[in-house]
Amino acid sequence: MQRRILTPLLELLIPGNKLNRLPSSLNPGQAHLPPHIFDALMTSPLTHSAEPINVALVDTRNIQSQDLSLFLYRSASQIAQNVGRNGRVLFLSTEDPLESSIVEGLVRSLSKELGAKGCTVNLGLTATPSSPSSQLQDFFLSNKSAYVNGQVVKQQPTTLVKPESDICVVTGGARGIGLEIARKMKEGPMYSKIYVVDHPSSDFSAASGLGFETIALDITTPDASSKIMTAIDAPIGGLIHSAGITADKTMKRMSLKSWRDCLDVNLHSIVKVDGTFQNEGFFDKGCKIVGIASTSGVAGNVGQCNYAASKSGLIGWSEKFNGLNENISYNTVAPGFIQTKMTDKLPPIVTFMATKIMTPLKAKGQCEDVAEVCSMLVEGDFRGERVRVCGGMLIGK
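Structure for Ketoreductase domain-containing protein, as requested:
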C-alpha cells in the first residue's frame, strides 16, 4: 500500500528522466552521430550559434596552456546553451596534472548541470596529444554510456596484449548484473565460451538457456579455485568478479557474522581466486579482469560499513594486482543505483533520494549499463581504471 501511494506522489515532486539510449535525433540503426568538434584546428570554434548539439567532442590536448581557460569557457558555454536532450559530451586531455585537473573540475560540474536533460559529460585522458582516443570516443559518444556521467577514464598509449583464450568466467552470473555481463561478453568479439559461477542455491535456468556453461559452488570455500580450474581445464582470457552480497546494518548493530560474510564473499574470496589462478598459470597472457565494486566503496554509505570496506578493498586489490602482474589488465566498475530485484524492494523514499536527489540524470541505471562498461574495459586498451556507473551521483571522484 505504501509503495503504491508514495511512489506516484514522489514522482510528481521531481519527474523521472527516462534514459534514452540514443541521442535525440539519431535514426534507428545508426551507430552514432558525427560529433560537433571543438579543437585547436577549428577556425571559429568559440562562437555561439543556434545549431543544436547532440554529440560534442572537446579536444583540449593541443590548446596552449595560456589559452586553455578561455577555450574551456567558450566551448562549455556553447554546449550548455545548445545541447539537446540525451546529448553526449566528451572532453579530451593529456595527463598533465594542472591542465587535466582544470578540465576535470569543469567536466564533473557540467555533468551535474546538464544531467537533468539526460546528457552525459565525461573526460578521456591520453598520454600525448597525438595518442589514439578512438576507444574513448566510441564509448562515450554513443548510447553505450547512457548512465556513465562525470567520469575520468584513461586510454593506454600502446595496445595491450590481447589474450588468445576465448574463455571468460563470470562469478555471480546466474542473475541480475552478472547475467547481463555474461550476455554482453558472449555478444562481443573476444569470448565464445562463457562459464557462469554462482552459489549452488542459484537458479541457473536463464544462464543455461543462453548457452553458458554453469559451475555451482560457494566461492568462499577453500577448494573453490581448484574446482573452477578442474571444470574448465584450460587457461582463461577473461574473469569478471560479479559475485557479491550485502548484509546491511549500522556498525553499532552489526554482528561479527555479517561483517565476515560480506568481506569473505566480496573481497577475500576474490583475492584467493586471483592469487591461485595466477600461481597455477590459469590466466592467459593478456587476460582481462574486471571487479564489480560499488559507489559505496568509493564514498561510503550509512549502514554499509562491511560492504563499503569490501568494495573499497576490491579497488585496492586491483591496483596491487596490476603492480605485480604487468601482462594482465585489472579494472574495476563501481555501480551506483542500478535497477535490480534487490533495489526494487527498497522503500520508495530511499529510491527517490538516490535517483532524484543524488543523481543528476534523475534515473535508475540498468544492468546493461554496467555490462557495457565491462565490455569497453575488456575489449579496449584500459588498465587500472575505476569507472563509476552511477549517473554522476553526487559523491565526488
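Residues 19-154 form a domain with the Rossmann fold fold (CATH 3.40.50.720).
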